[in-house]
Write a structure and sequence with these properties.
alpha+beta, ten-stranded mixed sheet, six-stranded antiparallel sheet, 8 helices, 28 strands, 14% helix
């Protein structure tokens, strides 16, 4: 079975039922029948899956595999579909599954962390984050970093293929007109070995970029540089020219061995050297260029992983490309390169290429802001984006720890709880009765400030049963903040 919920549908958009029944997939209502019973307490509808087939004629069923389909032509931004899967054994006992919870016997756990499909662009950001990480670490690192800069990004999660085949490039999944709604694309291939690039990714986007301000693409990934060479060798020189000294830094670069977890330094004179230098000069610290009396160049560590060791790309810029960061101590072993090129519209199309994944960045010393924030902000400002100072530099942060009074209160049948958090970390929001017994867990997961959304409680417990009228308490707990407030149900 597939449990489905639509979120953010406008009044002029079709219902979930229309998306099932009409259009080119008019037979969907037959293939995937609604199982009845109305929505779950959290708004999900139950549909039966159909056999998955290996051919378009549906003559070769795939053993033990099932499918569910919606006509995506009936959804427009900012609509989002949330879903999870379920099955029952011979005795009728259910089990539930999402990519983030794995198998669970508790339906509420699956509903609290479902899979989702988002119609893009949402219109809320100029940045598109293309995430190839097989788990959610890639996007959590990227989006939590953006939250320090008081900004957000739309997210495109590629279903990860460990073989790296089958058209993994974003250009095979989205039209160029859709991509051009964004002025900046953050393309993180993470550990994907091959197939994360198509010609459309690099050339078509930069050729047609004609926004009011400049823009560009930043590429992260342990094999992305080699992937570009394989897929678009003849055309990559138009916007990012380089050669690969080695695709595994363990073997060393132009000047000998490179550390397993290499120390990365910014190189003086690069494009990114011209943008935001946050640290005041401190003679007590060792800096690569002490002549900088007001600011210093950036440094961080690239973590090669454990227990599986990654191999980072060692690059050499060609033509108009510049070395921005290098694997210390040899400045010829480039870790990050950048290039600025005028496209046919006379706009500066900019490309940054890193030989490692964004999630591999680690701090080299305890300081604020963290190194991911410094690095990403330099790139965004190179692309022409104006970012706020990181949270914590000024006294009035964009995010704070708060728990508001629910509204309405008293309530029946549901109430909304608003909260905020200043930092990424684990958050729990739970309902207790007057005896102090846990009634309902509304939140229990890692979350970033930019991901905070109001929470609606429908007056049910974790088993989906309606609770009795009376006084209840809701408690928010983060790693640096906790608060409890009272609410009342009246029936």
């Amino acid at each position: 079975y597939c449990y489905v919920k639509s979120v953010g549908m406008g009044e002029d958009q079709p219902s979930l039922w229309q998306a099932l029944k009409f259009g080119k997939h008019w037979w969907n209502m037959i293939r995937y029948p609604y199982m009845g019973g109305g929505p779950t307490p959290r708004g999900f509808y139950k549909f039966q899956c159909d056999t998955s087939y290996q051919d378009a004629a549906q003559t070769k069923p795939t053993p033990n595999k099932y499918c569910f389909d919606l006509n995506d032509e009936y959804f427009r931004p900012p609509a989002r579909i949330e879903f999870y899967f379920a099955a029952t054994d011979a005795n009728g006992n259910p089990i539930y599954w999402t990519p983030f919870t794995g198998h669970t016997l508790i339906q509420a756990v699956a509903e609290a962390d479902p899979d989702e499909m988002q119609c893009l662009p949402t219109g809320s950001s100029e940045i598109l984050h293309v995430n190839y990480s097989p788990d959610r670490l890639g996007y959590k690192y990227f989006h939590s970093t953006l939250s320090f800069l008081s900004t957000t990004a739309d997210r495109f999660d590629k279903r990860w293929d460990p073989m790296g085949k089958g058209g993994n490039g974003i250009g095979n999944k989205a039209g160029i007109d859709q991509l051009l709604r964004y002025s900046i694309i953050g393309h993180d291939a993470a550990n994907l070995r091959a197939g994360a690039i198509s010609d459309l990714d690099l050339i078509s986007y930069n050729n047609r970029l004609n926004s009011n301000k400049n823009g560009g693409i930043v590429f992260f990934g342990i094999n992305i540089a080699e992937d570009i060479v394989i897929v678009g060798a003849w055309l990559m020189y138009a916007y990012i020219a380089y050669s690969i000294l080695t695709s595994n830094h363990h073997g060393g670069g132009s000047g000998g061995a490179i550390d397993l977890n290499p120390f990365i330094r910014q190189k003086e004179g690069g494009f990114l050297d011209l943008f935001w230098l946050p640290f005041p000069y401190d003679s007590a610290l060792e800096h690569p260029f002490p002549s900088y009396q007001q600011t210093v160049l950036d440094t961080f560590v690239a973590f090669a992983g454990c227990p599986e060791i990654k191999g980072f790309d060692v690059l050499q810029p060609l033509g108009n490309a510049r070395c921005e960061y290098y694997y210390a101590p040899d400045t010829n072993n480039c870790a990050v390169i950048a290039q600025e090129t005028l496209n046919p519209f006379g706009k500066k199309a900019r490309v940054v290429l890193a030989g490692f994944g964004f999630e591999d960045i680690r701090d080299d010393r305890p300081t604020f802001p963290i190194d991911r924030v410094v690095f990403l902000r330099r790139i965004l400002e190179f692309f022409g984006s104006t970012t706020a100072d990181p949270i914590g530099i000024h006294e009035d942060p964009a995010f704070s720890n708060t728990l508001e009074q629910n509204y309405p209160n008293p309530f029946n049948p549901e109430t909304t709880i608003r909260y905020s958090t200043r930092e990424i970390g684990h958050i729990s929001l739970k309902i207790y009765n007057a005896a102090g017994q846990l009634v309902r867990t509304l939140l229990n997961k890692e979350i970033a400030p930019s991901e905070v959304e109001p929470v609606v409680w429908d007056g049910t417990d974790d088993g989906g049963e309606q609770v009795a009228s009376g006084v209840y308490f809701y408690r928010l707990v983060t790693k640096s903040f906790s608060e409890t407030k009272k609410l009342v149900i009246v029936k």
